[in-house]
Amino acid sequence: MLSSLLHLRRQPPLPYKRAIPRSYNRPRYRSLSTQLLTPTSRIYVSKSTDPYFNLTLEDWLFKHHPVDSPLLLLYRDEPCVVIGRNQNPWKEVNLSALRKRPGVPFIRRRSGGGTVYHDLGNTNFSLHLPRLSFDRHVTAQTILRAVRSLAIDARVNDRNDICVGTNKISSAYKIVNKRAYHHGTMLISTQLDTLGDLLRTNKETMITKGVASVRSPVCNLQQFSSSITHGLFCNAVIAEFRNEYGVDDEVCFVGDTDDVRNIDYIRKGMLELPDWEWAYGQTPEFSYTLSKSFSWGTWLNGEIKSKHGIILSCALQVENYSPDDNSVTESIAHLGKLLEGQRYAFIDDAILGAINGPVGDVRTWLWSAMES
Length: 372
Fold this sequence. Notes:
By secondary structure, the chain is of the alpha+beta class. 29% of the residues lie in helices and 24% in strands. Strands 1-14-2-3-7-12-11 form a 7-stranded mixed β-sheet, sandwiched between helices. Strands 13-15-16-17 form a 4-stranded antiparallel β-sheet. A hairpin with a 2-residue loop joins strand 11 (172-176) and strand 12. Helix 5 (136-148) packs across helix 7 (230-245) and helix 11 runs parallel beside helix 12 (357-371). The longest helix is centred in the middle third of the chain and has 16 residues, at 230-245.
């Protein structure tokens, strides 16, 4: 491991970088009075575990921090699934498994990237930098050095993910105008079985124009060192951030008190994240091809097209229906027409009225397929 550290190539210094002795890199903390909360500090640690608050705080800092100054935010969340801004929740999240865990939401974040699972066993890091100075290789190496300082023989793969062996332990990027950031989740002691259940989906026939997640095997840092904690990892990242970017600010704790939540941008942001228009209405256009065999018909084929969470079309066709009466096949096709303009997976049954028999069977099947 020593030889690998000696051969680790460091990137050229950034324009504002200045060396700080390692002895000076011990984290210094101060609690941030809510009346003094400003986006001008450069190291923040959130005391909240509310994912709606933390994701909004991250966005507030990104939008309001001085554009020429580096920033680090560290936090962890209660259990939730977080999807990228341009992703399809019906494709990325096992919604059936999610519903079996009341109180565990999925949240669409405001940056791109893939779907991740958060709980108190992982730590989220967010490094904000001027766009012209942003280099995802440098930020990845900063986090890598923090992990290695904890005696973990980690590496960075070609996607700039942090890995131990072939397993990923920790990443997403956002670039807007003059600012950019690198954020990710560091798996320390997360519930990997829950992560697998909630992120394991099987919808190969759902084709979306959004960004698809790249699935990778994962592991926890505590599998290699049981002494690693959220606090130790935070201290290690803070030390490397100080050294890499020449920052000597005290570490500011932020709590989700009423004064902070009532900051207009944060209040509105926390209300927006769980709203249907954001969570589902931002879903890119997709199509879903389905088929099923019913006892009363040889086969039924369906194709649903949706954009921004609204059903554009639903074509339903029955093959080789045995009775001579065409009313059933026509009624099934009409059912598809009735779904046009409805919210995908949030169908208003009142517009359909009472439906029984084969058409009722199709409705039950479609509803189940859309909600899964």
